[in-house]
C-alpha cells in the first residue's frame, strides 16, 4: 500500500502538541504541572491575604477566597498553556529549517516495513522500529522515537485504504507498541 501526501503546517503543529502535551502518555506530566500551579497559587493567595488583612479575619477570607483563586489559576493556566505552547510550536513549524517535513512524500507500507521518501530523503523502518502507535480523530502516529513519528493524516484515506492500513498495522505492529501510549507514564 502506497500513500502520497504532504503534511500541512497544521498537521505538524498538531503532532507536536500531541507528542509534547496532550497524548495519554503525558497525562501524569499534565497532572503534576497543574498540581504545581495549584500549590503555588494557594501559597501565593495565603501570603497576599496574610500581608493585607488582619489575622482575625484571615481564616474566613481564606475559606472563601482560595477556591476562587484555585479556579482562576487553573483556568488561566489551561488557556495560557494552549496559547503559549501552540505559539512555540507555530514558531518551530514556521522555521525554514523544518520545511522538509512539509514536502510531498510517499509512504509505502509493505510486509517488511515502512518506506518513506521525499525529494530530499529516503528512510526504511522495520515494523519492529515502531515503538508506539497512537490514533487520534484525525491522524495515525507511528512513533519511531519519543519525538519522531510517521504521521498519516486520515483525511487522505478513503474507506478502502483506511481499512487496508488498519489491517497492515494490526498484523505488523507489536502489541506493546499498540498499548504503549495507554500505559506509558
Task: Explain what you see.
The chain has 185 residues and is α+β, with helices and mostly antiparallel strands. 56% of the residues lie in helices and 18% in strands. Helix 1 (9-22) runs antiparallel to helix 3 and helix 2 runs antiparallel to helix 3. The mean pLDDT is 81.
How is this structure best summarized?
The protein has 185 residues and is of the alpha+beta class. It is built from 5 helices and 7 strands; from the N terminus they run βαααββββββαα.
Strand content: 15-25%
* Total DSSP E strands: 7
Distance N to C terminus: 33 Å
Q: Percent of residues in helical segments?
A: 55-70%
Discrete helix count: 5
Rg, nearest Å: 23 Å
Structural class: alpha+beta
Tell me which oligomeric state these chains represent.
single chain
Low-confidence stretches: none
Summed over residues and divided by their number, the pLDDT gives a mean of: 81
Largest sheet: 4 strands, antiparallel
Order of helices and strands: EHHHEEEEEEHH
> What strand order characterises the main sheet?
1-2-3-4
Outline type: elongated
How are the secondary structure elements laid out?
Blueprint lengths: L1 E4 L3 H14 L4 H26 L2 H40 L10 E5 L3 E5 L4 E5 L5 E4 L3 E5 L5 E5 L5 H14 L2 H9 L2
Helix pairs in contact: 1-3, 2-3
Relevant terms:
185 residues; alpha+beta; 56% helix
Amino acid at each position: 500500500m502506497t500513500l502520497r501526501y504532504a503534511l500541512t503546517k497544521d498537521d505538524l503543529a498538531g503532532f507536536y502538541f500531541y507528542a509534547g502535551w496532550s497524548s495519554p502518555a503525558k497525562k501524569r506530566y499534565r497532572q503534576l504541572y497543574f498540581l504545581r500551579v495549584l500549590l503555588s497559587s494557594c501559597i501565593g493567595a495565603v501570603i497576599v491575604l496574610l500581608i493585607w488583612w488582619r489575622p482575625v479575619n484571615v481564616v474566613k477570607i481564606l475559606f472563601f477566597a482560595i477556591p476562587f483563586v484555585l479556579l482562576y489559576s487553573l483556568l488561566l493556566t489551561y488557556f495560557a498553556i494552549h496559547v503559549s505552547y501552540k505559539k512555540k510550536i507555530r514558531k518551530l513549524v514556521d522555521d525554514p529549517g523544518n520545511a522538509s517535513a512539509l514536502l510531498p512524500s510517499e509512504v509505502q507500507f509493505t510486509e517488511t516495513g515502512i518506506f518513506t521518501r521525499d525529494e530530499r530523503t529516503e528512510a526504511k523502518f522495520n515494523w519492529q522500529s515502531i515503538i508506539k502507535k497512537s490514533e487520534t480523530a484525525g491522524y495515525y502516529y507511528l512513533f519511531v522515537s519519543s519525538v519522531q513519528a510517521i504521521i498519516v493524516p486520515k483525511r487522505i484515506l478513503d474507506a478502502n485504504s483506511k481499512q487496508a492500513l488498519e489491517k497492515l498495522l494490526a498484523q505488523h505492529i507489536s502489541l506493546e507498541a499498540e498499548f504503549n501510549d495507554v500505559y506509558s507514564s
